[in-house]
Every structure is written in structure tokens, then in C-alpha cells.
Amino acid sequence: MSNDPEPSSLQYQRVILKLSGESLADGGGRGISGVEAGQIAAQIADAHKSGCQIAIVIGGGNILRGAQFSGSNSFVQESTAHSMGMLATVINSLAMQDALENVGLQTRVMSAVPIEKFAETFIRRRAIRHLEKNRVVILAAGIGNPFVTTDTAAAQRALELDADVILKATRVDGVYSDDPEKNPHAVLYESLSYKDVIEKNLKVMDATAIALCHEHAKPILVFNFKKDGNIVKAISGDTVGTWIGKA
């Protein structure tokens, strides 16, 4: 599989879809909404019909962020807080599993930490086999270690599973020069290099994730999943969002 196909000729065979925890929430950004989960599942089902193999990494911010407990005044140790955040991603993954199965997809939740009552333990070869059998694989608990974000987990799993691209789903149309929800004059970038992202300090993914993708030439496509049909467009290689790759 090519690590860095040209944006005009993308034809993905395997992708990592990175969803935030807030993507499953209602307008308040908290909890899990059956409506939101169902809409995402329907888009993924449409994309899956193309034959593309899809693995999903979901954050846990709609339930708990480790950063909520950071600081000297917190009674929870920071490493413990990150562990709590990893468990929040497991909850979201189980919800996403049912949403996907409700629209007829076969799925597997695979956790980076052993939690056999609820999910398979992540094993690279087994995950690849699930994908080859047309199952959607939902990757929970980050990479199993504290101080690692789900952005970095998405980059790590994309490398391990030899995904063609990381599809970073957001609620805006791509990467902007500034926050478009606050600055109406913010400019949408059609494409960026990894170096651009780092030098401009653009809040696409955390620095570790960008560094991993840069080192291994793993492309990223940032797009608005809230627009119906955009997951299908992203997977099929249509022009959508912001492409991040080699200069």
C-alpha cells in the first residue's frame, strides 16, 4: 500500500478514521447521543460498501479527559487520570460498535489494555485479519499507556495496520489559519506539509502524532464529518477537507 498517494488519485484500501469523543455527543459535547452515533454509523456503512477496510479510533472527551484532573490541586494523579480517559474511549467504542451493527456491519472492538469481558485485546495480526474479513475494527484505550493522546494512537495504529491514510474527522471543513468558529476571516488550507503544520502551530493533531506521520510519510486528511456523505467522499478520494503530506 502506498504511504503517500497524490490527492487527485486516492483510492484507499484501508483507512484509520479518527473520531473525537465529542462527535458522539449532542450539542453540549457531553454524553453519548444515539442520533449522533447513528448518523456517523450510517456514513461509515455507506463508505464500507466501497470495499474499503475501516478501523476507527475514538476519543473519550465527551465522558472524561485526563487533562481535567491535571494540576496541583487535583486529588487524582495525572497518570491515573489518563487511565480514566482510556476507559472512557472503551465506553465510546462499545456504543459505536452497537451503532454500526444496527446498520448491518460486522465489527470488533479491540482494546490496548486487557478487558476481555468487553473487548478483544489488540493484536496487530488479528486486527488485520478482521479487516480482511470486512469487519470494522474499533480500536479502544489508545495504545494502553498514559500521556498518549488518541491522536497519537491513531497515528500509531495507522503505521501498525499499514493504513493508506488517517482520516481526521472534525466539525469544520478542514484546517484553517485560525479558529473559523471565532474568526470569520480564517483561511481554509487545501493542502499542507507536515512542516507547515509544525511551523504554523496548527492544531490539527498533537505534536507527537504529526511527528510520527512525518517520519513515516503517513498522510492525513482533515475533513468535516458533519456534512452528510463526507466520509464516503474522503474514502473515495474526492476533493474534501485539507490534505497533509509531503511538501
UniProtKB/TrEMBL annotation:
GO biological process, alphabetically ordered: 'de novo' CTP biosynthetic process; UDP biosynthetic process
Lineage top rank: taxon: Bacteria
Record localization: Cytoplasm
Functional pathway: Pyrimidine metabolism; CTP biosynthesis via de novo pathway; UDP from UMP (UMPK route): step 1/1
Location (main, coarse): cytoplasm
A single GO molecular function term of this UniProt record: UMP kinase activity
Chain sites annotated for binding ATP: 18-21, 61, 65, 170, 176, 179
EC code(s) of this entry: 2.7.4.22
GO CC aspect terms: cytoplasm
Annotated positions binding UMP: 60, 143-150
Keywords of this entry: ATP-binding, Cytoplasm, Kinase, Nucleotide-binding, Pyrimidine biosynthesis, Transferase
Protein name: Uridylate kinase
